[in-house]
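> tool_call: predict_assembly(chains=four)
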Amino acid sequence: MDFSYSAKTADYLQRLDTFMREFIEPYESQYQKENFRLNGTPNWREWQVPPRVAELKQMARERGLWNLFLPDDKLGAGLSTLEYAPLAERMGRSLLAPEIFNCNAPDTGNMEVLYHFGDKSQQRRWLQPLLDGETRSVFCMTEPDVASSDATNMQTTIVADGDEWVINGRKWWSTGLGHPQAEIAIVMGLTDEDADKHQRHTMILVPLDTPGVNIERMLPALGEYDAPYGHGEVIFDHVRVPKENIIVGPGAGFKIAQGRLGPGRIHHCMRAIGAAERALELFIERGATRIAFGQPLLKLGGNTERLADMRVAIDQARLMTLYAAWQIDNIGALKAIKEISAIKLVAPNVLQQVVDETMQLFGGASMCHDTPLPGLLAVAKSLRIADGPDAVHRATIAKTELKQWQGRRHD
Amino acid sequence: MDFSYSAKTADYLQRLDTFMREFIEPYESQYQKENFRLNGTPNWREWQVPPRVAELKQMARERGLWNLFLPDDKLGAGLSTLEYAPLAERMGRSLLAPEIFNCNAPDTGNMEVLYHFGDKSQQRRWLQPLLDGETRSVFCMTEPDVASSDATNMQTTIVADGDEWVINGRKWWSTGLGHPQAEIAIVMGLTDEDADKHQRHTMILVPLDTPGVNIERMLPALGEYDAPYGHGEVIFDHVRVPKENIIVGPGAGFKIAQGRLGPGRIHHCMRAIGAAERALELFIERGATRIAFGQPLLKLGGNTERLADMRVAIDQARLMTLYAAWQIDNIGALKAIKEISAIKLVAPNVLQQVVDETMQLFGGASMCHDTPLPGLLAVAKSLRIADGPDAVHRATIAKTELKQWQGRRHD
Amino acid sequence: MDFSYSAKTADYLQRLDTFMREFIEPYESQYQKENFRLNGTPNWREWQVPPRVAELKQMARERGLWNLFLPDDKLGAGLSTLEYAPLAERMGRSLLAPEIFNCNAPDTGNMEVLYHFGDKSQQRRWLQPLLDGETRSVFCMTEPDVASSDATNMQTTIVADGDEWVINGRKWWSTGLGHPQAEIAIVMGLTDEDADKHQRHTMILVPLDTPGVNIERMLPALGEYDAPYGHGEVIFDHVRVPKENIIVGPGAGFKIAQGRLGPGRIHHCMRAIGAAERALELFIERGATRIAFGQPLLKLGGNTERLADMRVAIDQARLMTLYAAWQIDNIGALKAIKEISAIKLVAPNVLQQVVDETMQLFGGASMCHDTPLPGLLAVAKSLRIADGPDAVHRATIAKTELKQWQGRRHD
Amino acid sequence: MDFSYSAKTADYLQRLDTFMREFIEPYESQYQKENFRLNGTPNWREWQVPPRVAELKQMARERGLWNLFLPDDKLGAGLSTLEYAPLAERMGRSLLAPEIFNCNAPDTGNMEVLYHFGDKSQQRRWLQPLLDGETRSVFCMTEPDVASSDATNMQTTIVADGDEWVINGRKWWSTGLGHPQAEIAIVMGLTDEDADKHQRHTMILVPLDTPGVNIERMLPALGEYDAPYGHGEVIFDHVRVPKENIIVGPGAGFKIAQGRLGPGRIHHCMRAIGAAERALELFIERGATRIAFGQPLLKLGGNTERLADMRVAIDQARLMTLYAAWQIDNIGALKAIKEISAIKLVAPNVLQQVVDETMQLFGGASMCHDTPLPGLLAVAKSLRIADGPDAVHRATIAKTELKQWQGRRHD
């Protein structure tokens, strides 16, 4: 048992830290303003990427801080899930940083799908430009009309017709759909209603300029459009794509999703922990410097106890997430399902709690964009819903625990 | 001891309920869209009131459902704080309703100030049009640069100069400042730094078209601009108003604030409870009708227990608020300070909790404006900060409790 | 709506308060020691009532502070449930007081059963000596072998045989079974397995000296035997009682239980609230006088915030309980089931929370009998289990709420 | 980073597990009864050790499962703090087990003090018989009259007088003081009131048969005497011991305490986690097998969600404790103070929560000794108070966090 980070992780962590301090953090408040100036409208067709973003991406790439999430020696940095996790935490301290290092959701997950499951031609056509950071991608899974926490509810259909697949359905909360560089969506839908529960669904590649892809609107998450990415609602109206756009084959959707979700949840949770650390720093800074009733806020009421509780909650969430990452690397995501659900439950709640308390210290300033807090609250709350709400993960944990107890009992 | 509502309250409650069901609720989703169409921009100078609002106000007035908050037989309905409280709860079920009945914050509080403390001339000039629902008003208290939870921090100055007062300072979160009909602000500032702590501050009437009143921007609260009201940031730059604009006199600010806050907090809390009831209904409706894993959501996991806990929390908060209202009517707001702080602590937290859980059941739909939930979350979180954050009210409760214990001890 | 206590309640409250301050509180720590000396053994057959207790009972009776719980003008004080509630709270501040006023569980509940449902002969034989405080009684309901939270699980049988009923079964947590003056038990059992769910059970009077009543042991609740009452485990082994010992008749058990539980829960909850008030006073007293790190404990960490939260929790629980009492008086216990379940859930949890926090301030002293805290913890935890654990009451609340929602929906 | 246990730990864990399954678990309920028969009286002078205990200790010793806590190759097993931690967890599943392996508090802590700080003669005289499991020892620190959470409050004095030290004072909650084999106490007291805050106190060895050592009583912790150990209250009345009984020297008390507390807290917390695991198993077992309303309890209400939350809480507490152990081994207890306080805060609270919920499922059975639950509750609550209550550890965490933040800020 050893809690120290690997030499490789430690090295990348330091370089990442340096880059973030020198280039990203000083730019953040300007980015906020620029983004508001360029993209402060619900009219997503006008959205643009602030030019400085492309420059920073180029700089990060030149320094080898690029695609660190990808467990491939050549395309990424060859880091294991556990080795990458602390880097995701570091990036999570900034809402801008993940993109600069080409490590932002949903592109990371989509790249992983194409890397692990795409064929050569799909990889050449769609993966390479994503790895180069030149295009952006979308994952279309959640639907408005059914409880998507139960994926078997999914209603979008993918039907074979000659040399093509025809897609019909409505998806929403498809992140990245508003991005000016978004080119491709991975769409999940029903190919065979009568197949076994986990072989009914299929993933298919749909270029966004295909006729019948009708983007209806971008959805604000607690008022945040997250421009220039956006979370879109889209109708697939008799959308036709060639046969070869299918990933793996009909019925492979669930298997791919499973593979996609394991490391993806580690990334989400570690970024959430990084965000919580940042919120905690804001809590301390505000608490130590703002004066009321003749004292710094930290000396009033239960604020020091809050600080202690939040510190302990964050540290526990981090250890739990690193442990889940270690399990993914060692026994695979499927066998680590209890631990993965555990962190998906814990980390976003810790973030929400820390942000909520920090907002209390900031008062009015916490409610508007003068602080990153409303954005962080939207992240926390979104994470508690996306990829299964808290309750679904509690159910998974309990089910697995019960099964393990029954196993022990019959030993 | 008797928990039944007075005949007067019961009668108004029924008429209010009828009006809301017949006219307001059916209009709500259209209002939402119309408001977004007219006012879905941060550029507040373009904001307009949807015409249907004026019609509804007229209809409410004709039916005697007007200014119910005002404890005056002629100008209002002569209801005590306790009698009005259940009506405020009913209105609180809708974000639109309070305005229709001319019972919305901050106008109610401002009207109370003018009613209780304004002189005849101030009442004629400013109160009457507010009572008629023809103008809107603003209360400027919170400042960005100091912890406004400790009101003695306030930095805006009001200095006598000849026949005028000169006001300098910066205020924010001044609700209503973006409203096209906003005409008047009650501004609180420092008149005598050396006076006793509670006699340093003064309230003064500042017409919004006075030179030097520079509105800088509207602030979104968790992304909600609350158009066409808005929460503004404003600079008072050598703003000059005539001597007679002062309310009561120099140094009376705290005394007036105290009087304003008592009933105002009852209103806020009862509306929060009404909002919590509405969110709970959404929770039940969604839980009873949405299917996942072959069951309505309510049958899954701990959802029935959540329902029970929320029901109990809301009922307790309501009783506590009604009790505080009864105390205000019987012993006055000053002596009821512990109970008033208690409800200010409890009610918004209950609302936040209910909204948070309801959002979990709604999933993605909860994050955007397809449901009233993001708006209700912003209300809850704002209420936990405005008029003193939770921590300040906990401190007040503890201080009062300790004082009472010491009193009993020395009996 | 009126939150002031009735004149009758106010008068009794003052007399009760005087009696408790003058006679009970000064005796309490001596009682604790005397009780430990006389009864500090699990061997319940040796238990005795400290002689001072009988004296105090006599004094209370002479002052008319006797059987206040009974809603009968002659036998009690003719107080409604709501009017008695504040007196129960006052008594609840002392673990000894309820007995002194002949208002202790389970005798109150048993007297209510006999008063409302007993026939003349049963009342003469069993009720009168209880009203006189000369005998004690037991209620035998919970069974060790089945989940008694679901009363239909009950396995004890009551079978007719000639002019007698024959009882067989095992009961436990039968409070009062160890008392030297215990004479009579009301036993609930199964008379007709095939009847409708709520007509299977029957209540019957069993004198404790009947052959076949085999008391096995007294059970400590978190180490507390509650001598000289005790909580017993008892076997009914072919116990024969005459036909006339049945209450109302076969199958009436549930109906009687329902009537018994409504006011009984008000009493339990109000006593719990009184106990919580006492614990809160201990919290404040300890916090204000004990010094650590150069400060009274109350000035350290979050202790003032804890104080505030506990004050608010207690006040809300009290109002909720008074409201439930008012409903019992006005619409009956059956229709007030949601509110009764609500207080059964809330009040013991509030007590447990206040006791838990107070123990933290008392440190080591809190764990042993140098403070009343371990006794109060046992009360709280017992109340969270007896008469249905928290989860059962949450289920009742949710079920009722859902039914009411469906009713409103179909209006 | 590696989360797998060392080969050494894995080997011991398996052997320990086998021993516990084969010899300790089957004996536990008999032990409970035997202990009640022999020691079910507050009269501690009659207490005896059940003979089977000595046999089991001998068997454990023969199998090399002895003194595993001691980081010494010869006297113990040469395990690091981190390597021993999982063994402590395993032992913690039983209230009896730690003693069988000579790994029970307070003897472990006392042996560590003598091992690290005792001189040769002290080790020969007092350490050896403890290592052999033939005597038992006591640690006298907490005092009834002052807040012992602030150790500088301590009032017991140790004064030099010729060739002797004279001890005067009152201690309580001295665990093991009732044990028939208890021979020696390590007493902490004040030697120099005017010295620097951390050099005022001294530890000294006091044989329990020294004149003036007056044991007044054993204290029940929530009704548990923990016989035959007991928690004693003792007066030191002009107790005289020879000069050489001092440990290290005058003023070294704090330094020794610091060294004693680091690993000791790991042990306590890991045992608490083991106890929580056992309680969780009881929760699952009861939940899966007990029927109410036609269903196993686990299927009712929020019980599966509770199960999930408890699983996640335990796993996080374990990882946090192992991390703190790793820090103690790598940077020393002093530098790991924040993490040590964190686990002291977290682990006992997790245990209390799990036990509380499990009690709810067990109903009446949970309140008496038919289950281990009251004992586990007393352990949890005691641990939240002993060695500093929760609030003290929150203060330590916040203080350290703030200091670290200031350090980073001035980089």
